[in-house]
Amino acid sequence: MNELGEDRIKKLLKQALPPMGEAELERDLWPDMLRRMDAAHEAPPWFDWALAAALAGFVAFVPMSIPVLLYYL
């Protein structure tokens, strides 16, 4: 590549990506993070329990499916 091409690419990159500057947050994010961490300890929904029960029932009636299921985990 010649110097003219490099200068053109630098110019285009500077136009496409504005300078970041000193970005400041509008508020503190730590309280929101603590709330999300506390909310993560909720019980799983009923549908998850239904899927687990269906899988356990399937394995009880078709025990030969255990190696197949373990393979796909």
Walk me through this protein's architecture.
The chain is mostly helical and 73 residues long. It has a domain at 45-73. Helices cover 64% and strands 0% of the residues. The protein is built from four helices and no strands. The protein has helices at 3-16, 30-39, 46-61, 66-72. It is elongated, with a radius of gyration of 27 Å. The model has no long low-confidence stretch (mean pLDDT 85).
SSE inventory with pairings:
Elements: H1 3-16, H2 30-39, H3 46-61, H4 66-72
* Rough outline: elongated
Structural classification: mainly alpha
Straight-line distance between termini:
50 Å
Query: What multimeric state do the chains show?
Result: single chain
Total count of helical runs of at least 4 residues: 4
Query: Rg from C-alpha positions?
Result: 27 Å
Summarize the model shown.
This protein has 73 residues and is an all-alpha fold. The chain has helices at 3-16, 30-39, 46-61, 66-72.
Q: What descriptive keywords fit this protein?
A:
single chain; 73 residues; 4 helices; 0% strand
